[in-house]
Design goal:
The chain is an all-alpha fold. It is built from 28 helices and 4 strands. The strands form 2 sheets. A two-stranded antiparallel sheet has the order 1-4. A two-stranded antiparallel sheet has the order 2-3. A hairpin with a 2-residue loop joins strand 2 and strand 3. Keywords: Cell membrane, Copper, Electron transport, Heme, Iron, Membrane, Metal-binding, Respiratory chain, Translocase, Transmembrane, Transmembrane helix, Transport.
Length: 716
Amino acid sequence: MEKEQFYYDNKIVRMFLIATVVWGIVGMTVGLMVALLFNFPNYMEGISWLSFGRLRPLHTNAVIFAFVGNSFFMGMYYSLQRLLKARMFNDTLSKIHFWGWQLIIVAAAITLPLGLTSSKEYAELEWPIDIAIAVIWVIMGINMIGTILKRRQRHIYVAIWFYLATFVTIAVLHIFNNLELPVSAFKSYSVYAGVQDALVQWWYGHNAVAFFLTTPILGLMYYFVPKAANRPVYSYRLSIVHFWSLIFIYIWAGPHHLLYTALPEWAQNLGTVFSIMLIFPSWGGMINGLLTLRGAWDKVRENPVLKFFVVAITGYGMATFEGPMLSFKTLNAIGHYTDWIVAHVHIGTLAWNGFMAAGIIYWLATKLWKTELYSKKLANAHFWIGTLGILFYAIPLYVAGFTQASMWKQFNPDGTLVYGNFLETVTQVLPMYAMRAFGGTLYLTGFILLAYNVYKTAKAGSKVEDELVEAAPLKKITTRRTAGEGWHSWLERRTILFTVLTTLAIAIGGAVEIIPLLTIDENIPKITSVKPYTPLELEGRDIYIREGCNNCHSQMIRPFRSEVERYGEYSKAGEFVYDFPFLWGSKRTGPDVHRIGGKYNNNWHFNHMLDPRSTSPGSIMPRYSWMYTDDLDTSHTQGKMEAMVKLGVPYSQSEVDKGLFLLRNQAEEIEKSLRQDPEYVRNYGESNMQDKEIMAVIAYLQRLGTDIKKGETAEN
């Protein structure tokens, strides 16, 4: 049969490669800025948009969606064309995908520091950007599937299975988790509340890790590791088992982030069972990757690309062993809310994602610019500096995590807590935070070396041009299985059926967990004393969200003796029915605040937010001075209450109509109570402080956990 000539699009690969390097350095730099705030909490004092609570989601979004996202697109656009022997389906769609994704990243970089956030972890971006993400993701999917359909290769290779699973699953996760009711151009409320929102969010959050940080990178592993080693994949059969078991099991595992919380026990147990099962397909992928290097280990000594791949796959194995272990309730009770989780996450991101990206970038640089790498010595230096950076980052945080868990749970013989002051646990781990920042500095330095190495390689090489190739077109054959054809080989040439089965595999787990929680009232017993937030408390909650306070403070007291003794009555599912969104948190840099209402007077909160060290010596919490000068924006208060009514919050029409009147009355009452402190009168005697944002924040904090009496559970 006569072969057809066509060109591979290398220019789009170059664009994504440059974006990967640039956004990688930006995301890691923001991460280092965040890490330094633990040891120097006031080094960016007074700058609201550079405070910890606003920078932390910027860092996570930058490294996940900007750095890892662009690295996936870089590798996918390169490998997909060659595996299918076809140019991308549409060059215009490729360019829209690239520029659309970069604009989304820029929008995130602007809105998150401004405090425009939904607060949901890894899904903080507000509704207009969420819509843009969905549109660009669908454009990418059309381009991918269109390329598959016009391929000149009958069977789709294992890497493409993972690309398809990534496209389908991220679309489903993103849409369902980000269902929200807009209030204004950049303010919305999740359609889910409390326990339901928590389950949907961690169904998304865990599987964002699974299907944005894992499956696409596994696809890249299956292409680039054999290419770099010049060896075939170790086992095709293991690839099949790895793929189908991984995508089916992973989707169930989200509830292990919510063990010992107010989530119903059956959902927690489902998450635990499937999380433990997850170790088998995960390690199947790791084994398949490492054993692909059989007979090529001598090359690892000489080839920096293979060095990065080996440590990356090993890091994947470590992280995917640790994840299932942390889903055991015994270990979860120790690790959750501590820095152990931060160390665990960064083994995955720094080793698995970062080193896979680095290895692919080095390998692609020589192919795109048709020259040798500028300096193998620099690449090896990057490898060793980066590896040391991972160790200096993770090991101190493991130590910090175990230290925190131990100190939080220790009792004196008389039954009192040994470390009753939460700050004692914070100051104890400050040296570990300093070592973490040093490790981050090393890791960032390695990527700066990579950027220089790639730049010099590009300067020495030739201009990136599209690559002329030829291949025979596919002959049509029957859709039925042919004689001797394996069932999976048959499935690989039935692209639409393959995609449908993939969608079913990832949909089952989410549906079984989420639908009962949304439809069966018994899962969330009602508590009659729990009432909606007042207008001022609602505004205060939104400021709390804007400042990212939930990044450091949880609002979920687990039923442990140590937590009940430290914080108060454990949290009940019915307490969160008006929380749009939920704010249970995932890390305790500061104490839990679910029962903080009434624990301190208004003056304490006023002074604490202005200067945390004045009330809590040794605190590493930043100052929020702008809350004392910025007037509370009440232009959307009535709209917010009307949105809450649509979501099921029982505000009467009279309460909505009188919302601003009720808000001002409560603010005046708080300001009046503050005047009982002579220090306040001396400093703010003539000021109109009842109109400031701090009044709303105090109102919200004083409300937390006050709706139920000790031991009260469901309606009776």
